[in-house]
């Protein structure tokens, strides 16, 4: 994992950038442990990404959290589908579960889900600690995707206020420049042009 030290700066959210990055991870970590609502925890980093206007550090942390959240939700949904498949559908199957046959798969899937959740939470705690110290951690597989997604989403100029979030091209088009020059011409110049 590559770690880059970032200069302390303010976020456009009205707080230090490191605090905003910590909020991204903590909000997602807390919501991800709420049953079924945790499947949507990945949406919280999008809010921070869209609201942040200036800090590339906060935007990177939000995008990285988004990808981690999507991976966690996908794994949780996949494991839940397997649990639903293993749920008894008839009386005979239910009696087998009560008798102790068939619980092994449920126990395995439950343990696997818990281990994955704890591992992701430990990763988020590590990222919180690093972000608080203004250190940008680039996770090996996730960081390149986060950089590409951040660039593409950033180019869409999405934001909460409705103003343009990207750079603005203030240079007029050639035909607009010619029309503006013609409008700015003095009446004497216009008379000279019409006489010629």
Structure summarized in a few sentences:
The protein is mainly alpha-helical. The chain contains 8 helices and 2 strands, in the order E-H-H-H-H-H-E-H-H-H.
Report on the structure:
It is a single chain. Helix 1 runs parallel beside helix 3, helix 3 packs antiparallel against helix 5 and helix 3 crosses helix 6 (142-155). The model is unreliable at 159-172 (pLDDT under 50). A two-stranded antiparallel sheet has the order 1-2. The protein is built from 8 helices and 2 strands, in the order E-H-H-H-H-H-E-H-H-H. It has one domain (2-160). Helices cover 65% and strands 4% of the residues. The radius of gyration is 27 Å and the shape is elongated.
Mean pLDDT: 78
The description of the largest β-sheet is: 2 strands, antiparallel
Helix and strand content put the structural class at mainly alpha
Principal-axis shape: elongated
- The number of domains: 1
The first-to-last residue Cα distance is 73 Å
- Total number of β-strand segments? 2
Order of helices and strands: EHHHHHEHHH
Poorly predicted sequence stretches spanning 5 or more consecutive residues = 159-172
Helix content bin: 55-70%
Give the helix tally: 8
How much of the sequence is in beta strands?
A: under 5%
Strand order of the largest sheet: 1-2
Radius of gyration: 27 Å
